[in-house]
Amino acid sequence: MNETDIRYMRVALSLGARGLGQVWPNPAVGCVIVKDGRIVGRGWTAPGGRPHAETRALEQAGGEAKGADVYVTLEPCAHHGQTPPCADALVAAGVARVVVAMQDPDPRVSGKGLGRLRVAGIEVVEGVLGEAAGAMQQGFVSRVTRGRPMVTLKFAASLDGRIATATGESKWITGPEARRLVHAMRARHDAVMVGGGTARLDDPSLTVRDLGHVRQPVRVVWSRHLDVPLTGQLARTAKDVPLWLVHGEDANPDLISAWAGLGARLFACPVGTGRQIKPESALQALGQAGLTRVFCEGGGALAASLLAAELVDELILFNAGLAIGAEGQPMLGALGLDRLADASRFNLMEHRAIGPDIMSRWVCRPG
Q1: Fewer CB atoms inside 10 A, N or C side of the chain?
Q2: Sign (positive/negative) of CA torsion 142, 306, 302, 224?
Q3: For residue 306, which phi and psi values (nearest 5 degrees)?
Q4: Which phi and psi (to 5°) does residue 119 adopt?
């Protein structure tokens, strides 16, 4: 690994990040093609997952790709899907060297793409900025290896951990800067997810706003009985922006038909302890449907069930400079913990001011 490889791989990673939330079920990949110290081709996975980053970069580079160095954030694909393999395209273009940040965990690709390049006489370098690439591909890797999407859990709360007053007033605890950042976070995820209680109380739209044209995330609502208002914002927009409803196997068939008629996609999941939807089963269903990155915005019962099942990969907390008191609504439902040793632990990764508020970002502590 040398400084030149690191520099160009950073460019490829920045390009790949543009696809986060826009390309599922595919990974968000970036590619840079360099000839004689000059970038001749750039590409990142297009919205919807096609064309791939390498294809776009090769198209831009044209004949200059021959003998060039290629920097790509994920191993080039080796299987025939909707498009031919990117590994074959690189070989056909006559590139001299391919620098890869990480291997693709998909068994259809893993090692095979790099093998094709080596057989063709192309020099292959692996592991350049692999840790950074792994962080960016966490959702894709999670779906491939664990069968479920990566879960980011977000809270916006007072200093004393309350999300609303006793009467339910919650707009707005945090300031406009924090709210705008939350919309940017939504845009970098495949789906925005809430529980049925939040959908009933807040009547949210769960869309990305004020960030220009983006592929809207799927709206996911967990409601065992499907008792979400059929006249609310979610129902009115179900045909315009994807709406997926996770419900219990015992939900009313008439409600299932009604929501399907409105354009929603429905997922029947088993009910477990506490008469709640089994979170593991629900996330597996969402993973099978192609989601790689899910942004959960509550409420407290859904957040507690995900934490209790150790299904939260990243936790983002916005704290506003006010106190609401014990009578306010807590940001987290009951976890049933008797010992601190049983609580999930997270490592602090980031802590900064966002306007008048404080944002902290935590990742699940291994083990």
Answers
A1: C
A2: positive
A3: -70, -40
A4: -60, -35
Tell me, yes or no, if the pTM score tops 0.90.
yes
152-179 pLDDT per residue, tens: 999 999 999 898 888 877 778 999 999 9
| pLDDT tens digits for range 254-303 | 999 999 999 999 999 999 877 889 999 999 999 999 999 999 998 889 99
Q: Which residues, including other chains, have CB under 8 Å from residue 312's CB and lie 6 or more apart? A: 151, 152, 153, 296, 306, 344, 364
Distance CA 316, CA 362 (A): 6
User: What is the 3-state secondary structure of the chain?
Assistant: CCHHHHHHHHHHHHHHHHHCCCCCCCCCCEEEEEECCEEEEEEECCHHHCCCHHHHHHHHHHHHHCCCEEEECCCCCCCCCCCCCHHHHHHHHCCCEEEECCCCCCCCCCCHHHHHHHHCCCEEEECCCHHHHHHHCHHHHHHHHHCCCEEEEEEEECCCCEEECCCCCCCCCCCHHHHHHHHHHHHCCCEEEEEHHHHHHHCCCCCCCCCCCCCCCEEEEECCCCCCCCCCHHHHCCCCCCEEEEEECCCCHHHHHHHHHHCCEEEEECECHHHCECHHHHHHHHHHCCCCEEEECCCHHHHHHHHHCCCCCEEEEEECCCCCCCCCEECCCCCCCCCHHHCCCEEEEEEEEECCEEEEEEEECCC
Whether 144 contacts 292, CB under 8 Å = no
**Phi, psi (rounded to 5 degrees) for 360:** -125, 140
Closest CA to 4 of 32, 43, 42: 32
Amino acid making up residue 2: N
Active site residues: 54
Q: Measuring CA to CA, which residue among 278, 314, 291 is closest to residue 148?
A: 291
Residue 70 near residue 97, CB atoms below 8 Å: yes
